Amino acid sequence: MKPALTQARGALLREIATVDEHGQRRTIEVPVERPLTVYVDRRALVTLMTLGQLPELLVLGYLLNQRLVPDVSALESVTVDWEVAAAAVRTRRGAAALQARAARRVVTTGCGQGTVFGDVMAGLEGLQLPPVEQARLSQGTLYRMLETIRRQESIHRRAGSVHGCALFRGAELLMFVEDVGRHNAIDTITGWMALHDVPAHDKVFYTTGRLTSEMVLMSAQVGVPIIVSRNGVTAMGHEM
Questions:
Q1: How much is the pTM?
Q2: What are the per-10-residue average pLDDT scores of the chain (240 residues)?
Q3: What's the maximum distance between 2 C-alpha atoms anywhere in the chain?
């Protein structure tokens, strides 16, 4: 059973008046960063700083990637209200893992500041990904992916200051999301995949941001075997 989701939407860009390097006044667009406090069964959990492109999917993916809920069937609804900057999550039987895992919080290297709950390495040895023979990406497919991203209409192209993440099947773009943090974007894609029962074994994640250990772990938890970054990888991300 899938949770009921609102479809809260807000402006993603705002015009501001500036003075450029020549002393000329002009108007530019900037991304709208906003706080979203997540409440699970009326208990405040975390405040996410987000662009708010698809906030319900962001919350859903965040709870899944933090392993605070086992799957989407554990949730009854996700309600986002931008007037109070809050997301109310209602579970079907209570989030059993919530109190235990929320006892430990780790500030991560996510843009702004990310927070993960509990032992980030717990259960890592149990993750199963497709064998190397199946998880392959041809040079031609990679080039077509990058060309698709280059042509993609984006907030970054208009205003900068955001990261983008995409989900591909071969060279086919399935979903593209932008946010102020790359971890938010991958959470949103995770939520979309879970809501629509999208298998992960033949997919590729693309991100404009660096591949930290957090990003690699999140991709592995979802089951996506290949990650592409145009930015680079940290040593811990590579080891993981």
A1: 0.88
A2: 96 96 96 95 92 97 91 96 97 71 50 53 76 90 96 91 95 96 93 97 94 90 93 92
A3: 61
